[in-house]
Each structure stands twice: as structure tokens, then as C-alpha cells.
Fold this protein.
Amino acid sequence: KNQVEQSPQSLIILEGKNCTLQCNYTVSPFSNLRWYKQDTGRGPVSLTIMTFSENTKSNGRYTATLDADTKQSSLHITASQLSDSASYICVVSAWQYGNKLVFGAGTILRVKS
Amino acid sequence: NAGVTQTPKFQVLKTGQSMTLQCAQDMNHNSMYWYRQDPGMGLRLIYYSASEGTTDKGEVPNGYNVSRLNKREFSLRLESAAPSQTSVYFCASSGKVTGGRLSNQPQHFGDGTRLSIL
């Protein structure tokens, strides 16, 4: 079983709408949780990094939340744009693996006009 | 500002051939990594180098070797390519290692090498 599960697998929304992507993880203890955006044919780009003591972190229209008790994180995208079409990847940094990163499979978001 | 540069971008090999994937970063980062990304799966760590002169195995090292040539460059070698190694390979780098563990800073990725093995 993957230690980092993301849902939904894919999502289509209209431009201008908001959406929320989910991440559940079993990695414990962890040092930080990250969200990356990966455009088609490109490498992942970091959006946010949260330590276990942080509940929320924003980067422009992207807001990540973290509940370390339930081992859940979400990424909220506000007022979506066509350029938000990408794969969004949740990543947990695991202490027991020397802080190596454990990657989710990603949620593919398509924003249509 | 190039960041992390990977070459080649695409490659097709026959089973049993060898090749080296190149990676260079210009951010003066200490740590560098090699990942593979397969459909429906998260990125998986092949090898990493916490600092110049050191390399360590990741989650899926079998069939690969690496060389940290200097602080800027980290190469990945497939000695005898197999169809199971068809994948997209990403190199990444990050800042200073603290306390002997990998950095908590963001990793910066290249745009990948798409490798097909027939």
C-alpha cells in the first residue's frame, strides 16, 4: 500500500472555480509535507513545504493545510486558471528513511474554459 | 538561470546497451538525487548524493550506478539496459545537508530524460 495516497486521481473544473485536492499519508513520524506542481513534460516545482507544527501555508492562489493528527493534507486552489492544469503531487519527508521523500502518485487537474 | 539541466531529453536504447544520463546544477547545492517516474506511481529515489564525494542507494538502485563528478554534476549510468528501466528519469538538487540527514529544503528538479528500452 502506498504510504502517500492522493485523491481524486483526476479532476476537471471550469476556469475561475475553486478546487481542493486531498492527500492522506501513513508515514510517521515525518519532518515535513510538500506539495509540488508538475506541468506536462516538465519536472516538479515546489509549491509549499509545511513542518508537522504548521497548519496552513499559502503561495499565491494555492493554500495547503495539514492535520498531523489525522495524517491528512489538502491543497486548495482559488480562482483557477488555465495554467493551473497540471499534476499536483503530495510528498512526505520521512525521518525514519533519513528524510528521503515519499511521493504520492499525483492528482491530474484540468482547467477548462 | 538554468537551475538543473539534464541531457539527453529523449533516448531510445536496445536491451543490453549502456548509457549515461547527465545532470548539472548551477545553484551551488550540496545534495543531488536521481528519481524515476512511472505511470500511476510516485517518483521513486534511485540514488542520491548528500554531498560531493558521497553517494547512497535509494529505494530502487538495482541496475544503476552513479557518479558525483564534482559539486555541480551527478550522472546516472545504466550498464545493461532492460525494458523494465523504460521510464522518465529526473535529477534534482537541494541545499545544505543538516545533521547528517537529507535537507529539508525544497528539491529543484530538471525537466527529465525520457528513456525507452526496446
About this structure: The radius of gyration of chain A is 13 Å. The mean pLDDT of chain A is 92.
